[in-house]
Amino acid sequence: MEMDENPPCAALYPTFIRFVRKRCYRLRSPPTVRFAHRVQPLAYLLSRGFGAIPQMKREYHRWYSPRLGIDMGVVVYGHWGPPLLGFPTSAGDEWELEGQSMVGALADFIDGGRVKLYCVNSINGLSFYNKGAHPFHRSYVQSVFDSYLREEVVPFIWDNCHSQVGISTMGSSFGAYHAANALFKHPDVIKRCFAMSGVYDLRNFMDGMYDDNFYFNNPVDYLANLSDPWYYDNLASCDIHLITGTGPWEHSGPTYRLSEVLNSKGIRHSVDDWGPQGGHDWPYWKNQMREYISKLF
Known about the structure:
Number of helices: 11
CATH class: Alpha Beta
Largest sheet: 9 strands, mixed
CATH architecture: 3-Layer(aba) Sandwich
């Protein structure tokens, strides 16, 4: 495994932060963890202004995934805190959350040990967005990616935290699909998700075709037929946030459709409709995540 504690920054954008009051519930934080080295990411400076001199630990880990057959990277932000696994949008990679200044927007929480952020690449360009591949290859890659998350990323996070603690996920747009799917597939280890402006029925990515790999990674399908008591028992202890609104470019239909499926199976969850503050763009998502972390971590 390769590790670089001061990798190059991606392009950065301004940070927009607002606060909206919402009813939330606090869960107990995991044990603290000891770390050492610190760096100063530009995203934090942009988000907080240049008057203060913030410090944030950032590590870049990269290893060859025998499942995917490629090198995969994970960026880790913070010294200690409950682990939060962040997914990029459709065309992003493990650097997107920093590049879009989400990391900067959450920097005070990260520095304060409220969360420890882990950012991954979701390889959408090799799976559902790979229009040059056969649809069954797309669903196969997603199935293998799910295995990579559970068998490689989760153990890495536990080792990095020195504790087999419950993991939260977050994602926006297509990243919301990954954030939610990871919890629904692995509710014993992924215990909370923030799925912002997501889509949860991916039939449009399969050119009319369908197979088992797709079924078991299409939440509105496999959840509708859920019957295993093990999943019900573990999902009962999860904190599921499906986030939408009526703001610019937002389409709330997929969120409410998934909620209908969950309701039909008696799975506890929250549909957080932010109204005009629920738009489909980074300023809205950063605003939402600041509010959730301030209340729930």
